[in-house]
Design goal:
The protein is of the alpha/beta class. 47% of the residues lie in helices and 16% in strands. Strand 4 and strand 5 form a beta hairpin.
Amino acid sequence: MKPVKDSSAHIKDVDALVRGMYESGGFSAKNLAVGVDILEKMEKEDCRRFLSFPACIISTGTRGIIKELVKETLFDAVITTCGTLDHDLARLWKDYYHGDFALDDRDLHRKGINRLGNILIPNECYGEVLEKKLQPMIERIYEDKKELSGYELIWKIGEMLEKEKKKDESITYWCYKNRIPMIVPGIFDGAFGSQLWLFWQQHRDFKLNLFLDEQKMADEVFDTKNKAGALMIGGGISKHHTIWWNQFRGGLDYAVYITTATQYDGSLSGARLQEAISWGKIKEDANQVTIDADATIALPVMAAALFERLRK
């Protein structure tokens, strides 16, 4: 029996805050602290590390946290959605803006402003700028190579960002720089995918071979004879692709899942990691935790504490 201890408002660093959350014994706070412990173990062991997340958080400042995780090579593979490319690239060239959940969406539509939660994205900062910038990039890639995988295409886009003033802020750039494959199973489900389709209208011999992306996932899973771990933020296709492929190696050894969804509708987003054990996607004895929290709150705290520990 471990006694519950009170948290302190007088803390010196983020890691001390997180350790206090563990000692508090309290609900999601303790689970957040357990999540940091698991991520620390993943970094210290010989472990193949997967990072999955949805696009929505890339429209916010949390993009900077994901970028740091990739820049510092804390993960070996990224699995995400097409919108991640949309927001990550669009924000290189245009700003997104603060909004409010209660704004009048009819009024926003008439003004050409898209609302993503409490983030505002004018049309010129999204689809319009992506078409202007991406079409010449895709043309250059096409001239060099007519058929390639999705992750190779993303690396080539990242390489073309070398001269961009804000390249260091880009997840796409750092995936290219560190040769971390970004796997986007639903790569046509967003503005980036629409630009690929648009280019294909005049270049029917341009081919995106997604079988090669699946082979890359297989390589990431099977090339490791040691352990495998994942930090999964939100559900959907990115989470499922991560746990689906890892079932073929007997399941993940480490797993941290951050979600705001409920499990009682049967959705994958709401499914706790325990459920994945029944499918063999996570090992029975895995070191795992589900954290019920908004990732824009939890992830910056967790990442800051983890970096403090690794620096020590």
